[in-house]
Amino acid sequence: MTKLTQYGWSAYWNMEWSKEDRGIHQPGRITADFGQMYKVYTEEGEIWGEMSGKMKHELQHGGPVPAVGDWVELQMLEGEERGVILGVLDRKTNISRQKAGAKSAQEQLIAANVDILFLVTSLNDDYNPRRMERYLIMAWNSGVNPVILLSKADLCDDADIKAAEMEMIAPGVPVHVVSALENRGKEAVTGYLKEGVTVALTGSSGCGKSTIVNWLAETSTQRTQGIREDDSRGRHTTTHRQLFLLPQGGLMVDTPGMRELQLYDDNGGGFEQAFADIESIGKACRFADCRHEREAGCAVRAAVEAGEIDAKRLQNYRKTQRELEFQMKKEARGQRKLNRMDRSAKEPVRRKSSYWNQRLTDE
């Protein structure tokens, strides 16, 4: 039987588990999320899990929603291959984005306790360095180590040139050119897949994530689809998040493709890391609060004119900066609304209490 350590259980998680008296309960790791039900791997094998009533109630007050990769506390149901999820152990890392379509800033958790994030983009018409800058922000904000995979190299004649371009926008981040069809780059990628290490893949729809999972797993673990020839985009092949144990010993999380990545926050300093060159040059601007637009003495615009910084990169820097600032304001408005709702909910209770206190006094 597969041991829990192969799914990432370590001395660290053993210490976290031991912080509380959990009696006969046991740990498990969520391997798939189907909405109300979860697949959870335990020492006894894979079972179905469902949140307890208490957890569901706590969700209304900001409690954690279990996610793929989470370690959870389980109460096994006697005689059944399922259990009740009682709680989530504190996460080491969590990959999040802004929930699409939400009027206020809302987090959508993609995966938890990931060590390495493969940022996948295909070498066809979907190739986009500006989009990759956004994925890098998400990775660094999540606390994981990013690795860029340029997939479908068999469709590209200048893959090495594009790899060099990616290395320019992501200094220090490993960049690998891969092709499942030609079996290219597999040795470099499998080098990350050590026992107990969790790797997640993310990227736009149709970029080849599921093909990479099948290629590395050496089996048809994930269903794949072709892409449209007119715009090199694909449908969502992966419909839910799932964690796989690979033959190399590592763990991999495949996630549904993203039509658009909306950043959730910048608490991890991901923006500064993704645009470290602009941030560094910006320190030489005449004004400390320079926006690098029309200000006199702007060192960043001077660097663009000198060809040291790509003008499109600066444009994306400004766009992303405005987006994060707007999102912070939206989050603040949402918090103020919640505070007002909380006060409104408590106010009738205080009035009722005062009314009966007065009645008792009168009597």
Task: Please sum up the structure shown.
The chain is of the alpha/beta class and about 375 residues long. About 35% of the residues lie in helices and about 20% in strands.
Q: Count the helices. How many?
A: 10
Query: What characteristic shape results from the CA principal axes?
Result: globular
Q: Which residues form runs of ≥5 with pLDDT under 50?
A: 223-238, 349-357
The CATH topology of the largest domain is what?
Answer: Rossmann fold
Q: SSE string, helix = H, strand = E?
A: HEEEHEEEEEHEHEHEHEEHHHH
Number of domains: 3
Gyration radius (Cα, Å) is: 24 Å
Largest sheet: 6 strands, mixed
Strand content: 15-25%
Classified by CATH, the class of the largest domain is: Alpha Beta
Helix content: 25-40%
User: What is the average of the pLDDT values?
Assistant: 82
- Euclidean distance between termini CA atoms: 72 Å
Q: Tell me the total number of β-strands.
A: 13
Structural class: alpha/beta
Strands of the widest sheet, in order across it, are 10-9-8-11-13-12
CATH-scheme architecture of the largest domain: 3-Layer(aba) Sandwich
